[in-house]
What does this fold into?
Amino acid sequence: MQIVSIIPEAFCEWESEVSLALCCLSCNFKCWYCHMKDKIYNPLNTLGTAKDFFFRYINPMHTALIISGGEPTVWRESLFEILLIAKHAGLKTKVFSNAMNYEAIFTLNKYQLVDMYSFDVKAAKDLSSVIGVDISDETYFTNLYTTLKNCRENKVNFELRHTMAPGIDTEAVKQLLSGAGMQDIEVHYQKYIEYKN
Ligand code: SF4
It folds into this structure.
């Protein structure tokens, strides 16, 4: 897993923990409003591997490892490996994901490699226009719900996020996720901050 950005001590991304946060190269989406888009598609932005940075930065103050991106699940084996290393070191783990690679998430859950996910809910409709890749709304939601169902079945905690970018019907997303609170699922609505490169 190649890394493009590091937060040596992250507090906001997982408020109950002191985390080492690693952001990986690459994503299966191309969201027009992505704040990482200058970094995640160009391998020249790579700073090193997740393993290298883990052993360089981890210290006894850390209680957790966070992997975000980009999309961590596109790395599959090397994602599994870095999470396994973190687990063997006694750390909690959190993965930020768009939830589409449900097979990768099945494996992560099967081997209990993740304590917490943060899944991004992009929109309630017209997903292709938001995420910049050709996907039907039906496929998007089938993948999303398959992922969430597997987490529930495996008793792995997750939160949901949504970025309130211009042109996205956030009210429709709120409607879609209106039942989340009753199932003890936290939903974070993130403000859109204009992208500048
Ligand atoms: S899924 Fe996330 S990382 Fe990937 S393009 Fe969209 S906002 Fe960026």
